[in-house]
Write a structure and sequence with these properties.
Layout (H helix, E strand, L loop, with lengths): L1 H6 L1 E10 L6 E3 L2 E4 L2 E4 L5 E17 L13 E6 L2 E7 L4 E21 L8 E12 L3 E3 L5 E7 L1 H4 L23 H8 L2 E7 L47 E5 L5 H4 L3 H22 L4 E6 L8 H15 L5 E5 L5 H4 L9 H19 L15 E6 L6 E7 L4 E8 L7 E10 L4 E9 L5 E7 L6 E8 L5 E8 L4 E9 L6 E12 L2
Parallel strand pairs: 11-12, 11-13, 13-14, 14-15
Antiparallel strand pairs: 1-9, 2-5, 3-4, 4-9, 5-8, 5-9, 5-10, 6-7, 6-8, 16-19, 17-18, 18-25, 19-24, 20-23, 20-25, 21-22, 21-24
Length: about 500
């Protein structure tokens, strides 16, 4: 019925409607005040479809933050069919934006989204004007089958994701929620999302430059409100956004307080985290929960998060519906950094791939694993053919995941000494990119394989040629069968008194 109405043609006219839920779909924690829909949280948006439209314009409004200096005004984007057509900061109290102009009737999906964060102002949407000959020129889009809630700090806000380097300070002009791991995860899983995220916020303490506890940014005090600051610090009706899973990415700012005395302050953090999880679980009793930390370091906080999850699992009865994982620390040397040492876009993309896979595992969904480094958690070992006399000493560095093998006697064949990394899970039909760096005697030609554990099936068979210190290697291959226990191997036997060091091994599924 709805499709037939949309297709129906009447007289061409311009129709102006308010940006209310009758005409648009609210995404995230939006607040309606004085006939204006305020996009408050990071990623807050309104989305609608237009039918047979020749023109579309939206009227945006500022709440005072548009008077800030040009680097600290609320930033927004307008997307047409998921492609940004405008990204800028709001600099007027009221501004009419022409979104679409066409000589022929056009069907499109349009989204207005807040790119910066709640504590730096909001973006208002008051009216939408559509020029169309359709009887139903504008309508809300449909909800997606999955809803993910993100509770976090500056990382979730995509603080500085477009910053030129780590020495640049905070600007709303470099925040872009479209490049946040949260938005990317939702896009990858075809999910709706909602956020409660603020730069500097924590569980037991907000960011502290001197190690003294700060209570001006405690997430549990603001989780149940639309936002932290007036006039949006009003109770939020969680029932308006039924959630399937909540992702909590907190602890980075708490570490500036806890690191001064982990023995005492770590348990304080755990106690406060349990209380926050209680609020989240009360708001969405049927939702699963995943907790994480680590993108910007602070791995010392992870054991306290593990303790939190274990305590809450028992007290809440959630069982396997709550879990945690340690996020990989950003690779600043290869992936770059955003403002104030925050994650780059590449880091957010990697984080989204991992989180998407974790969510699929938690909810029993099929994961495509695209973007996943399937060698991330594998074990590094040396394989020696002792019958051939091979012998070697090894050292693995947890700091940079380098693996050094010092060969004493190399045996007779190159296969008599091998660095082996396993297990590595491979999926049928998957395309993988193998990269690493290795230091070996210059000119060495060392066989490299990705193979089954029994060695009978070889998925990738290449040769590494050393040019000396940290020579890079790259290869791509496709797998024709599932193999949950495959392994990587590089062979360097048949030579006594030599050494090979493996660095930065990654095996990423690309398709």
């Amino acid at each position: 019925m709805r499709k037939s109405l949309i297709a129906a043609v009447g007289d061409y006219k311009e129709t102006t409607v308010k940006a209310t839920e009758e005409n648009v779909r609210f995404i995230n924690r939006n607040v309606v005040l004085n006939d204006v829909t305020w996009l408050v949280q990071s990623g807050a948006a309104v989305e609608f479809s237009v039918s047979r439209a020749k023109t579309v314009s939206v009227t945006l409004n500022g709440n005072g933050a548009q008077k800030n200096d040009e680097d600290h005004r609320p930033r927004y984007a307008i997307l047409v069919n998921d492609e940004p057509v405008k990204i800028e900061c709001l600099d007027e109290r009221e501004k009419v934006i022409k979104v679409l102009e066409s000589d022929t009737p056009t069907d499109a999906t349009i989204k207005v989204i807040h790119l910066s964060e709640a504590n730096n102002g909001s973006v208002g949407v008051s009216t939408i004007t559509v020029g169309s000959d359709s009887i139903l020129p504008i309508a809300p889009t449909s909800r997606k089958p999955l809803h993910i809630e993100f509770v976090g700090d500056s990382i979730t806000c995509a603080y500085g994701v477009e910053g030129k380097d780590q020495y640049e300070g905070f600007k709303t002009t470099t925040e872009n929620f479209l490049k946040s791991y949260a938005y990317l995860t939702a896009q990858k899983l075809n999910a709706d999302y909602s956020t409660a995220c603020y730069s500097g916020y924590g569980v037991v303490s907000s960011y502290s430059s001197d190690g003294v506890r700060r209570t001006d940014g405690i997430m549990s005090e603001h989780y149940d409100n639309a936002a932290a600051k007036s006039p949006y610090n009003i109770p939020w009706d969680h029932s308006t956004t039924p959630v399937d899973i909540t992702v909590v990415n907190l602890g980075t700012n708490d570490n500036t307080y806890c690191s001064k005395d982990y023995e005492t302050r770590g348990p304080e953090f755990t106690k406060a985290y349990v209380e926050l999880l209680g609020k989240i679980h009360k708001a969405h009793p049927d939702a699963a929960i995943i907790c994480t930390v680590g993108t910007m370091g602070c791995a010392e906080m992870y054991p306290y998060i593990e303790e939190t999850v274990e305590q809450f699992r028992k007290s809440s009865g959630m069982g396997d519906k709550i879990s945690c994982y340690l996020s990989a620390q950003q690779d600043m040397n290869n992936d770059g950094l955003g403002s104030d040492w925050h994650p780059s876009y590449i880091t957010h993309q990697k984080a989204a791939a991992v989180l998407s896979d974790k969510i699929c595992t938690m909810l029993g969904l099929e994961s495509d694993q695209v973007g996943i480094d399937v060698a991330q958690d594998a074990k590094y070992e040396v394989s020696l053919n002792k019958e051939a006399g091979a012998d070697a000493a090894t050292y693995f560095s947890d700091f940079d995941k380098s693996f050094w093998v010092n060969v004493v006697t190399g045996g007779k064949e190159q296969s008599d000494v091998q660095s082996v990394v396993s297990p590595i899970g491979l999926k049928k039909g998957g395309t993988y990119k193998l990269t690493f760096k290795a230091t070996a005697p210059e000119g060495s030609k060392l066989p490299v394989q990705i193979r089954s554990k029994d060695g009978k099936t070889v998925y990738c068979d290449e040769t590494f040629i050393s040019k000396g210190e940290k020579t890079p290697f790259e290869a791509e291959f496709t797998v024709d069968s599932d193999d949950p226990s495959a392994e990587f191997a590089i062979m360097f036997g048949a030579k006594d008194y030599s050494s090979v060091t493996l660095y930065e091994l990654h095996l990423v599924k690309t398709a």
